[in-house]
Write a structure and sequence with these properties.
Layout: E1 12-17, H1 21-29, E2 36-42, H2 49-54, E3 58-60, H3 63-67, E4 74-77, H4 84-93, E5 97-100, H5 108-120, E6 125-127, H6 135-146, E7 152-161, H7 187-198, E8 201-209, E9 218-225, E10 230-237, E11 242-249, E12 252-258, E13 268-274, E14 280-284, H8 289-301, H9 311-330, E15 334-335
Parallel strand pairs: 1-2, 1-4, 2-3, 4-5, 5-6, 7-10
Antiparallel strand pairs: 7-11, 8-9, 8-15, 9-10, 11-12, 12-13, 13-14
Helix pairs in contact: 4-5, 5-9, 7-9
């Protein structure tokens, strides 16, 4: 394959932007991938380059220089949330395919701008919602879409993670990067799945507290969808790692439980129960859903397949996230369609870059 931005063997050449904890996880996940290759790494801190060079990777602090490199076909953004939209739009204008870690943006307006930039420049946009790609969740989505579970009435997502020791100035602790506490780190995975099942949200109510740490660590969100279904999303820093997702329909229910964090997956348990039957347990073996998501991005960039998360779903997820952020700060029910019009006092300011 001689397409610009692809290796001789047909791999999509990407630049991983941001070499913090998760950026390094992605670099590790892509080792030996036949579909996608880390060609460059970028971080604003020159000292981080020592790690990259130890991995045998090219390193730079200059994002613009990478966007001008014809050998780079795409970027993988592992950067602070508030700059995702700006970086993604710049990459799209440079004709680079874009894989953006979640959340794609912090406002619906920015999400739409990113989608439109990618569409206008003919590049693929993908998002780090890796939980869609685990086999157990693929089966859940199949059961929902086939009608096997009947009319979907309620979804539940509970995501917990032990409090990690972070420096006080770490961007992940800054309110402008996490307007609804743990939602951008944990709960958004559950929100993405709920949007995939139910479509756009109508209203949200978020209850956020600081119970075991100086920063908000306990979040519970009730989401009402336009299709009439509801979802309860619990996102908590403090307890040991756990991710559980369940869907309830009038013909049956199904639940998926992660055994370990996706950084080092060990498989999943799925329990399903149909009307009139008994619960049945299915165990799914280990695989890398992080790598699978990135390879789906590469497949889409190469024209081999469509990326399975639609642009409308990406926008709908961020629209709900924006409303959740406002609700978490105000303690009020927020209509999703009105979130963009909320006064500045109801928002956490995001500084211009």
């Amino acid at each position: 394959m001689n397409k610009m931005g692809f290796s001789q063997s047909g791999q999509l050449n990407v630049a991983v932007v941001g070499l913090g904890w998760w950026g390094k996880v992605i670099v590790e996940a892509l080792k030996d991938s036949p579909k996608i290759r880390v060609a460059k790494t970028i971080d604003p801190l020159p000292a981080v380059g020592d790690w990259a060079k130890q991995q045998g990777l090219d390193f730079t602090t200059d994002y613009d220089a990478v966007l001008a490199d014809p050998n780079v076909g795409g970027v993988v953004l592992c950067t602070p949330h508030s700059i995702h939209a700006k970086q993604a739009q710049a990459a799209a204008k440079a004709k680079k395919h874009v894989f953006c870690e979640k959340p794609l943006a912090l406002t619906r307006r920015d999400a739409v701008a990113v989608v439109e930039a990618c569409k206008a420049n003919g590049v693929v946009l993908a998002v780090g919602h890796e939980h869609r790609f685990k086999p157990a969740m693929q089966e859940v989505l199949r059961m929902v879409r086939s009608g096997e579970l009947g009319k979907i009435q309620m979804s539940e997502a509970t995501l917990t993670l032990g409090v990690r020791p972070l420096a006080a100035d770490n961007w992940r602790l800054q309110q402008r990067e996490a307007p609804a506490g743990s939602m951008t780190a944990l709960g958004i995975h559950g929100l993405d799945i709920c949007v995939a099942i139910n479509g756009p949200a109508e209203s949200v109510f978020a209850n956020m507290r600081s119970l075991v740490s100086p920063t908000p660590d306990t979040l519970c969100v009730l989401v009402s969808f336009k299709n009439g279904a509801s979802a309860l999303i619990s996102s908590v820093f403090g307890p040991p790692f756990s991710i559980r997702f369940a869907v309830f329909g009038d013909k049956g229910w199904v639940q998926v439980q992660d055994k370990t964090h996706p950084q080092a997956p060990e498989g999943w348990l799925m329990i399903k129960c149909m009307q009139g039957g008994k619960p049945q347990t299915v165990e799914y073996p280990v695989m890398s859903m992080v790598r699978t998501n990135l390879e789906a991005f590469a497949d889409a960039a190469a024209g081999r397949a469509s990326y399975p998360v639609t642009y409308q779903e990406m926008i709908d997820t961020i629209a709900a996230l924006e409303a959740i952020g406002i609700s978490a700060q105000s303690g009020q029910i927020v209509q999703v369609t009105e979130a963009e019009k909320a006064p500045a006092a109801a928002r956490v300011p995001v500084p211009a870059e």
